[in-house]
Design goal:
Blueprint lengths: L1 H15 L4 E5 L8 H8 L6 E5 L17 E3 L7 H10 L5 E3 L8 H4 L10 E3 L11 H8 L5 E2 L28 H5 L4 H4 L12
Parallel strand pairs: 1-2, 2-3, 3-4, 4-5, 5-6
Helix pairs in contact: 1-2
Length: 201
């Protein structure tokens, strides 16, 4: 399986020239091997990394990436140790998805406060979302957060727009003010993070 993983890295690197986005899915591997680590180190400009449905139990071996802004780790078996690893090694994250993993408590999530640029977080299908006051407490814990599990702080669903025509919709596109005020504030609105989602809508 490690060979398949490495082949995907090389294939996507060839397609892009300089690898900035890497998407690995459904390659069953519980831990990254030294060979995978060395291959990932060859791509320091990586901005978006998705490793989904691979059964990962640890992030050990995932090299520190100073340019990484989007990290999608849905459908694995990652626990609080992965949260610690992320907070120590990927300081510039804007979007993080850990949907369908093994995150259980608020206390485990406190380390994410070490990610000052984090604006979008997905923890759906983790045990922690069953905790009382889950939505409100996560926003209190992470004051810079704008989107949690595809909902804004008021609990409104975020609409995902098509890449070509979605700049005007953005976050909270159902809100009434969009019709009247968005034209005036369009430039500042564009700075908000655009929802990123790999496997779920």
């Amino acid at each position: 399986m490690a060979e398949l993983f490495i082949n995907q890295i090389n294939k996507q690197a060839e397609e892009q020239g300089q690898l900035e986005e890497l998407d690995i899915s459904e390659i069953r591997i519980e831990q990254l091997t030294p060979e995978i680590t060395e291959n990932l180190k060859k791509h320091p400009k990586l901005q978006s990394l998705a490793i989904t449905g691979c059964g990962l139990k640890t992030l050990e071996g995932l090299p520190k990436m100073d340019s990484l802004e989007v990290l999608i780790l849905e459908g694995n078996s990652l626990d609080f140790k992965a949260l610690n690893y992320i907070s120590e090694n990927f300081k510039k994250l804007v979007c993080l998805s850990l949907a369908d993993n093994q995150i259980k408590s608020f206390e485990e999530l406190r380390v994410l406060s070490n990610l000052p640029q984090l604006q979008q977080l997905d923890l759906s299908d983790n045990k922690v979302e069953q905790q009382t006051g889950y939505h409100q407490k996560i926003f209190q814990m992470l004051p810079n957060l704008q989107v949690l599990d595809n909902k804004n702080q008021e609990g409104e669903e975020i609409e995902y727009s098509d890449e070509e025509g979605g700049d005007q919709d953005g976050i909270g596109s159902d809100s009434e003010f969009n019709e009247n005020e968005e034209d005036d504030d369009e430039e500042s609105e564009d700075e908000s993070p655009k929802p990123q989602k790999k496997t779920k809508k």
